[in-house]
Amino acid sequence: xxxxxxxxxxxxxxxxxxxxxxxxxxxxxxxxxxxxxxxxxxxxxxxxxxxxxxxxxxxxxxxxxxxxxxxxxxxxxxxxxxxxxxxxxxxxxxxxx
Length: 97
Known about the structure:
Blueprint: E1 2-4, E2 9-12, E3 16-19, E4 25-28, E5 37-41, E6 62-68, E7 75-82
Antiparallel strand pairs: 1-2, 2-3, 3-4, 5-6, 6-7
């Protein structure tokens, strides 16, 4: 039996997280995107609505971070964040006591 996390990910009974499209391993319950492929690029690559230069607001480098399934390259997460910080959008399906 597995638990559907979202349209792209599912968690197996053993806690492993895999892609719902190709069943490639992507992570574990506490870190569902641990083994995802990550692409870093300029925020403007997100599309025409991202026009402002981040340097107007911060001294830190801001990046577009996209996570993909390592098997079929389905996009799993997209965020515009400071490049020196881990993902702010965290998900966990781990049951905590």
